[in-house]
Amino acid sequence: MAVVQPVSEIPFVAGDAALDFVNTAEERGHPAAGEALAAPADLRVWGQRYGLLGPSARLAADAGDELDRARRARDLLYHVFAAFIDGRPAARAQLAELAELARAAYQAGSLRAGDDHSVHWHWNPSDLATVRHVAVTSGLELLRAMPSPRLKQCPGDHCGWIFLDATKRGNRRWCLMSECGQDAKDVRRRARRRAAADSGRDESAPAR
Fold it and tell me: pLDDT tens, 151-189?
């Protein structure tokens, strides 16, 4: 398994809870795919860092089962988002499963009024399943409201993170310019140097 950033350090750069949750895995489909949620404690740390779980969140006896459910929901969201980005419909079976997850999420939640009298969904900050519920409901809202050109996938080597392009021109390409973007620049720079070196050797080689 590839080494990925620990969940305590993984950056939140996607612009949405569902996408940042999807990005806890990298390079899907590759034998060395990276997994940041290796244990139930990782799921709790992610939820606490994202503000979904409180410091009192505990790992119940079924925490391992919830980790499995959360990772399945995450991978399902990934495939639905990937279809959206590719301009193709998600599979009916995937949408049916996502609908079941959404029903479970809303059954577990409650509606609350904010200080500005707006209404929003609330889930128990002590329950590990809250991470899954928020990711699923946030993902559905995103798919409903987001223009497809604004939802993108990083082309970086061994990456594949998905993010919202919130730039005015809609020209964001990388999950992080300082990482995948810089890596691509370095690759191009090395390629130019090799090409220049090869060209120099060719020019100096004796004619035959």
Answer: 999 988 778 899 999 898 888 988 887 668 444 334 334
Contact 138, 18 (CB under 8 A): yes
pTM of structure: 0.83
pLDDT in tens, 32-72: 667 899 999 999 999 999 999 999 999 999 999 999 999 99
What is the DSSP pairing of strand 151-153 with strand 162-164? antiparallel
> What letter does residue 92 receive in the DSSP assignment?
H
- Contact between 20 and 135 under an 8 Å Cβ cutoff? The reply is no
CA 38 to chain centre: 16
Rounded distance between C-alpha atoms, residue 180 and residue 43, angstroms = 25
Say how far apart CA 49 and CA 131 lie, in whole Å: 11
Rounded distance, CA 61 to CA 25, Å? 25
